[in-house]
Amino acid sequence: MNDAPSQATTIDSAEVKHWHTETDVLIVGGGGAGISAAIDAADAGAKVIVLEAASEAGGSTALAGGLIYMGGGTPTQKACGFDDDIEEMYQYLLQASGPNADIEKVRLYCDRTLEHYDWLTRQGIVFKPEYYPEKHTNTPNEAALMITGNEDAWPDNTHAKPAPRGHKPQIKGDHGGIPLMKNLLRSARAKGVDIICDARALNVIKDGEMVVGVAARIDMQVRYFKARGGVVLTSGGFIMNREMVADYAPRLARGNYPNGNPNDTGDGIRMGLDAGGVGVNMDEGFICTPFYPPKQFVESIIVDETGNRFINEDVYHGRLGSAILDRPEGRYYLIIDSRHFEILSRPPMGGYPVAGTGESIEELEQELNLPQGALINTLTAYNQCAKNAKDPTHHKSPKYLTPLDQPPYAAFDLTVGNGAIFATMTFGGLDTLPTGEVITAEKQCVPGLYAAGRNSAGLPRCAEGYASGMSIGDATFFGRLAGLSAAQRHLD
Amino acid sequence: MNDAPSQATTIDSAEVKHWHTETDVLIVGGGGAGISAAIDAADAGAKVIVLEAASEAGGSTALAGGLIYMGGGTPTQKACGFDDDIEEMYQYLLQASGPNADIEKVRLYCDRTLEHYDWLTRQGIVFKPEYYPEKHTNTPNEAALMITGNEDAWPDNTHAKPAPRGHKPQIKGDHGGIPLMKNLLRSARAKGVDIICDARALNVIKDGEMVVGVAARIDMQVRYFKARGGVVLTSGGFIMNREMVADYAPRLARGNYPNGNPNDTGDGIRMGLDAGGVGVNMDEGFICTPFYPPKQFVESIIVDETGNRFINEDVYHGRLGSAILDRPEGRYYLIIDSRHFEILSRPPMGGYPVAGTGESIEELEQELNLPQGALINTLTAYNQCAKNAKDPTHHKSPKYLTPLDQPPYAAFDLTVGNGAIFATMTFGGLDTLPTGEVITAEKQCVPGLYAAGRNSAGLPRCAEGYASGMSIGDATFFGRLAGLSAAQRHLD
User: What is the pTM of this model?
Assistant: First the structure.
């Protein structure tokens, strides 16, 4: 269902003449956050209803690669021979979150990462204890474990000891979200959670300051759901709502590939704002241009229109996308030599058109209309770095410092607007405590209202530091806490 | 008065037992926006009260340089021999506002810029028709007119025809905010506006959905002010509220020099959020490192720790500050030769320590611990640009392309945290219509509530595109509209 977004405002409970049904915990949105909330609320003894706008539950999590960011020595890490340490994971995530970090959430997320791993396996999720060692957006085989961020790239590798922390539920290839959500949904249903699909939440219902339910449209009729414990908003981000993107995160509008499902229209965020919550981190989001696979593209150089490199080309694809969007508008090229061109088994994932080719680097420089000598200088310096196995200016790992000295050369176009994929999703949402409680501008809780996943601002805080697995890790973990908080509020 | 920020939540009018007084338009904050609102509300026939938290009105506007961004052929521009065009001003401001631009506000601001100039002169403000042609943060003499942004720097000069548009009320030196506010306050008082100082607004009072007044603390007592037309929030930004900066604009926390007055604690924004408004552009702000004056520093090169230039050194100081904070954390240097050093009449404004000196550029390169050859290459290329009067990579104007070839050399340290000034103020606030009406997440007006100045998100939208004069221009112009709207709501 791709309904128009609701024009939500809160409803006074005194105006509700007939409650359709009552429950302990009412969850808006049946994706990774909502179903995790439902499971832990049900485990705490609460009666739980989930309202899902689409005709099937799963949300954007089901459409995702399914990677979950966990560490500190998970059984999968250990089986693959990796040591990891919760403190290293904490240091990594803290600096990866940038200035907007929610330190309390990062701390709790790391302290409980092994418990969360156990919880996921208890829901039936299997992580095949196999490590995939190459640069990729996801493991192309059934392997669970890979490095999914900038852990081993400069400067992150100077802040914390790298470890692979992306864990994919077992499936061949990219679609780890499917086994993840299948298992979570099966577990939730087995615990008696009632998941109502084609049910679009419209308004939060309040009794004075207290949130007591939600109005939802089902079969073209508005029905009123009462929640004795609380309402948990988990209906996803707002990347599909162009007006909200323009208002809150206009930088993301430059992307051409919104990541998510058609119901990521920010309705839950707007319902929470109407109920007294405030939005934080609203301008931030994921901005990625997938320049790998193929992994050989990591051995390229990436230059701007001055012919200069500006980044270590072994960064996570999100950091490259973010860097290009943060820099002045201009032309960007990925340059390889024949050795890398010939081993291409398929066109690059990023959808980059060929911008030019040259029998020599001089010819390519001319064809790309770069300042005379600029590309030649850059390449000469780079090949010297490769020879020295040291990149003093941009700190690319020696592992990927291969000379580009086998003409002919080719350049792919990474310029925004020329066809390259710049994928985006939102990282902003309601301000919440780690318990999921929605708070006002005055840091007071809105009684009865909780949020998790991308209806809240959680672990993922900036494009530059993002790693695959942070979103689903955050959604499932803090979803659980929000569900539990709502259940306990009723039962206490 | 530097009170702790209030813990505002809205008050139900039914709870108000005694109204201290009634008025048509109640304005919270007596700075540039508030007093402009008061003048136009009074001119429309409304009874106006202004509540000012400090012991004197004036706000941050009174502390500022006083520049006002106006163009399209103002009498001052014409007297100084400058042609300007409203369309050129519009194009400039539109791209200077970046992706977050409020197009409607930019359009209206430009269309009425000549009318606003007239209005200011009618309040008694004098602009001495003299042009100051050098790079500076303000005119050091009594001259009114100067270029205050990136109008003549690349790439802005490719988008619109440059013109000087900063207008300073007449005074010798930097303190144009003083004659500006003196005149506005004199005008407001002459029109019968009642300005109550030492009055801290605490809460918005609502009757149902409608804003009907404000509770304020005066002489340690809470008093209730009723507003028949509307409440106008104009109490400034939140740069002095470290918690709000951390929540909403954490990047600004890296600055070391908050621009504003101690009452810039965001109280008005929080009162508006409590009353149903939403914050937009909350992460953005001014980030400036004043590398000029002296004007000769524009003839420097500015390099990062790779020894490379990254910007045209003739940009506005705000764009340099923003660029450094947007780039990876690292070291930044401003490099001059003996010719520029010797003409220094005073230490650089930016508070930059000397990072190194060298009899040769090689020696300086070593002293700064830059990669071998990097600075030499950069300087060789730059001096070639100077010889050619063309900078193909960074597009610095030939006007400032002077070779740096007279050793000894010196480097000033522009690194964040090493003493360089990085001044900050906030650009985020309540979402408003150009009329000043505060709107909700659902784009519905909050009846009776208006905002302007830095309680709203207005013309200034991003550090990179900011020009001096945009803030006061925005505050005074949209302040007027907000005051008029509130007055008309009552009188209609």
Answer: 0.85
